[in-house]
Amino acid sequence: MANDLFRVAVIGAGETGTPLLRQLLDAPFVQLLGVADLDADAPGVALARERGVPTTTDFLELTRLGADLDILIDVTGVPAVREALRQEMQDSGNHHTLIVHEMVVQLMLSLLAGKRVRLKHGAQDY
């Protein structure tokens, strides 16, 4: 039943996003609706494609999922992406989708690991 699933999309599919994507893909209570990364060949993008999840190089495409998307996770660490997401949600009137940024992801992964986890970000910028 769809109400029993967290409908999630992820922006950032490199070193930080890929381990998170693996966990999301393996969770029976998560429906991964999309993955975005500037690098169409990023490891997380390849993983998503293998599992039949739509991918894009334009992260704003994920915001167009509207109320079908419960949680949009941004693990890029790029302030411009964060601001663009906020602006897009405001402009579209989407009051349903929750945007989760890398600091919350870092907290959750640290809790799971039982110690502080450092996120890895490449030099690539958006």
User: How is the biggest beta sheet arranged?
Assistant: 5 strands, parallel
Main-sheet strand order equals 3-2-1-4-5
- SSE run: EHEHEHEHEH
What's the helical proportion of residues? 25-40%
**Mean pLDDT level:** 90
Backbone structural class: alpha/beta
Q: Could you walk me through the main structural features you see in this protein, from its secondary elements to its overall organization?
A:
The chain has 126 residues and is of the alpha/beta class. The protein has 5 helices and 5 strands. The chain has helices at residues 17-26, 43-50, 60-63, 79-92, 102-113, and strands at 6-11, 30-36, 55-56, 71-74, 98-101. It has a 5-stranded parallel beta sheet, with helices on both faces. Helix 1 runs parallel beside helix 2 (43-50). The longest helix has 14 residues, at 79-92.
Write the SSE topology.
Blueprint: E1 6-11, H1 17-26, E2 30-36, H2 43-50, E3 55-56, H3 60-63, E4 71-74, H4 79-92, E5 98-101, H5 102-113
Parallel strand pairs: 1-2, 1-4, 2-3, 4-5
